[in-house]
Amino acid sequence: MKTQLKAILAVTATAIAVSALWNVNQGPAEAQQSQGGSDIPRTPTGKPDFNGIWQAMTSAYWDLEPHEARHGPTLALEAGAFMAVPPGMGVVEGGEIPYKDGMRARQVENKQNWLERDPVRECKLPGVPRATYMPYPFQIFQAPDATLITYQFAGADRIVHMDADVEAQVDTWMGTNNGSWDGDTLVIDVTGQIADTWFDRSGNYHSGWEMHVQERYTMIDANTIDYSATINDPLTFERPWTINMKLYRHQDENMELLEFKCVEFVEELRYGDLRAPGSERGDGVTPIF
Questions:
Q1: What's the DSSP call for residue 42?
Q2: What is the pTM of this model?
Q3: Distance CA 86, CA 67 (A)
């Protein structure tokens, strides 16, 4: 844990230093200029500059596949529209996730029991690519040797190794991340993810360790990224499949990534049965100390 924290702090410090050096050496107008006349921002090394706070605006969080509006989980019907699922055009190329024969049944069962089974309900880390299109912002700190992607939800982090090909040693919630450049496209290969993550609230799942996710980040203008992720999991799917969406930079003057440490919000869910007899459960508004 201490080693990971030191690595995160080192990447963050390096990214801030690189950003500061860039601002000193280049004026705002020059910083927006790039090779070939493109108007995307670039780092001093000439690579696209992804530093900033980004967010997806899509219904993929609820369902990657095309879907109509529907009720929320049965146990939440009293919540009315609060937990209803909004419609979406889908982000899967070809429209449908290519499950192998017999594997779709588990997804349908997951969907029917979403409220009890979805791992993020208990503040577990969302995994990749799900972290990207959750309805929370995330921040990219970019440096030549490593890139840090930190997410508002649950304080999830990913260290992307840019100067070494690191092999996954154990399965983890956010996987082992290796980055490279394909021209102006940042490519991140993610391996070694734990099986206990989903792709969305509709119960789309994967096998875990055998899954390989390749993300591609292509900046199409100063404030928009074309994002895609190709999932290759031969134990679960007939063939690799790809999702595609846009990511948008937050441009508010005082925008910053605030904390959403959700562990405290699931204490009642996880440990409520251990509450001392007669102790107050709480009204969901007043903090319990």
A1: B
A2: 0.84
A3: 8
